[in-house]
Every structure is written in C-alpha cells, then in structure tokens.
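Example 3.2
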Amino acid sequence: MTTTYRNYIGGEWVEAASGRTFEDLNPANKEDLLGRFPRSDAADVDRAVEAAREAFKSWRLYPAPRRAEIVFRAGELLLKRKEELARLMVREMGKVLKEARGDVQEGIDTAYYMAGEGRRLFGHHVPCELPSKFGVAMRVPVGVVAAITPWNFPLAIPTWKLLPAIVCGNTVVFKPAEDTPLMAHAFVEILIEAGLPPGVVNLVHGYGEEAGAALVRHPGVNLVSFTGSSETGREIARVSAETYKKVSLEMGGKNAILVMDDAALDLAVEGAIWGGFGTSGQRCTAASRVIVHDAVLKGFTQAFVDRAKGLRLGSGLEETTDVGPVINETQLRRIHEYTEIGRKEGARVLLGGEIATEGELRRGFFYRPTIFGEVDPGMRIAREEIFGPSVSVLRARSLEEAVEICNNTNYGLSSAIYTRDIDRAFRAIQDIATGVTYVNASTIGAEIQFPFGGVRQTGNGHREGGWTVLDIMTEWKTVYIDYSGRLQKAQIDV
C-alpha cells in the first residue's frame, strides 16, 4: 500500500488545503512509487508562514547555545541513520550509494559545524571615539526564512540552509524539490525527534510554480534562500525586490577543468571522469567542459573516452553501478536535445549521445555518458548548462587561452587546473573568474567549513557554507552605550 505523506505546519502533520497530491517515483524504476505528497498552494504557504512568524516570537529569545544543542542532536541522529538515509536517497533521487552516503555525511558535518556556532555567533567590539562610551556590533536573526532546495543534494543542501537558520534564531518554511520530497520528510522528522519546537521549521511540499512562487511572494517572509537554476533565481530576485526581502541565490554552473601539457594525465582523466559523470553530471559543480592543451589533446581525449567506455549504468543500489539515472523524463529529454544541438553545431560525438533502453535500464531514466570532441567555445553545448552526463572537450594552445575559454561563460562557480608547474597554478588561481578553484583535483568536492558559491549568473554575492552563511542568516545591529552622564555628539565633540 502506498503511503500518503503530509505537510508539517505549526507542529502538526496536515494535508494540503486543496486535498491534491503528487507522486514520488524512483528514477531508476518508474514503476516504483515511493509515496504521494501534498500538492500545496498559496493557502498552505499562508498557514506555514503564519506558524513560522508566531514561533519566531519565542524562538529568537531561546539562547543560541540551546538552539545549537538541538542541531547537534540532529547530527547525531543523522549519523545513526546514515545508511538508512543513503539507501532511501538512492531510491528517490538515483545517485549511486557511495555518493548518497557522502550526501548524508555532508549533512552530518554541517550539523556539527553549525552546532559549534551556537557558542560563537561572533560580533565585534570596536573602540569608540568619545570617552565613557561603549560600542558593539551584534548579530540578530532575520525572521522567517524561505528555504527552497533542489533535488540533486536532497539532504546536504537542506542542512546548509535550515541548520544555520535555526542556530541564528530564525524560523523556516521549507519547500523541497518535488522530485525528492521523501528525503525532506525524513530530515524534518529527525529535527522533530531532536527536540525542535513546533513552528520553528514548517515543511510545505509542492511544485515550484504553485507553492514555491507563493512562498517567494509572501510578505511575511524575510529571507529567501534558493538553490536551483539561474532563470528561476533571477525571477526570485525580481519578485523579492518588490517586498524588500533578503535573497541568497546559488544557481547554475558551466564548470571547466584545464589540462596543461605538463599535467599528470592519468590523474587528469580520473578528475574529468569524476567531475563529468559523478551524480550523472547533475551537480552545479559538474565539469561539463575540459579544456586541454593542444600538445596533449589527442592522448588525453583517447584516454578519457576509453575510461568513460567502462562506466556501468544501473541502479545506484547495485555495487557494480558507476552512473545512475537522471532525475526524470523531462531532464532525460532535455539532455538528449542538447546532444542533437551539439551535432548540428558541428561537434563530434566521441562517446554515448543516446538514451539507454536495453534490459532493466528501460524502466528508468538513463542516459549514456557522452563526450563531445571538436567543440568550439561559442557552441551552445560549451556555454549552456546541460545538467547531465555530457562533457565537451575543447582545445587551447596556452594557459592564457585556456583561462580565456574558461571565463567565457555566463556562469562562474567552479574550476580546476591540472599542472605540475606552480607558477601556472598560481596564475590560474589569479585569473580564473569562479567562486571555487581546484589545483590537481576535479571541480566537485567542496567542504562545508568553507564558503560556497560563484559569480556572474551563478550567484548574487552571498556564500552559503562556512562562516559566511551567518551573514545571510543574521542582520547586524550596532549598539552604543554612553555612560558619561552627559550628551556627547559623535564627529562633533572630538
């Protein structure tokens, strides 16, 4: 019997006001129905925001170390259930089991890191220019946070947003992607078990154009934290400006690995395989471009194709699987459309380029790992985010040309360079315009204690992750205390 799940609002599990639901399917097996979830709309969002605003009145006064203890307990529960959650993630989202375990571990790491911030949340004491006067800048919570999360990291990214928000004293309305509602449900259950009071986190399922749009427009929301496409992020920024909301956007990427003529080619090939085909290429940091020095282009490309030929498609729960399905049929068709675009543009398909339909693969959304050669930097496949297992190999005749090609995109999230020349490495670090740069490693694998985000159409200047997330989840309040017993005028009585 299929389970029907509910929203979590004000400490109660409730159906959508309309009574409508949607289905959650296993992308590796379309016949595997994981559950039905509320198809929420503005009425449900209204109720959730009201619950969050009411809870904020008391939660903001709850001592930060006590808030952090709840987050720490949530981390302990995530650790205890790591394998269970990872297997559930594979079934719902499709990534292979070892990657799903890494996704859960990132949530655990975030919980422990943010729990420590509950006894810091540092402000600044700065000397005043007048005698007998004290000044301090302190952090205060923003209010109600709308956390809108994607499906590709269905536990890690929600922890990036919810746990800092909670520790900082905010309350949350959480709208997860409609492709991964079950992982969101499991995460909220863990927060409840850890002792989170009613109304502090409210879970509203549904589609972006219905529940998500209503949440962004709601005047009771103070901050929108969004991870997803650049097109959606731009619309969120526009709508949020009308009601003066804070907005944190982490959006698309068209990331590149630069392979120089002095690179360790075997290592570079492994980095390109992991960057291009890990999570079936469904990462904002995926290495969808490999820019190779002309002197080693032929040897690298052949080794890259040969290595990719051995990748095995299948269910992520099978130990022999290297590449799982893509998330849904819409994305499967989109990836193939880009393959046809590449062919029409004159690129050469060196590997893959087709939907996999044989045997058990026909039951899911599988696309063969695809490599394009003879790619010009101006081609759409080299400029637009495909978000699938599709990699373009481009030629460069120098480091300077490789950097120019790398930067010639609307995005600027992650980059990598393979070289054994320290001077080249530092010039690349200096000149590549991305928020994250790796040397002799692939474009994926960020650690939670560092800022994460990018430039241009990848983000709007904020960085979630690390200490910088506190600047998103709090406002600065400056306090002056004058104990001189007389009126003192700053910039005048000096």
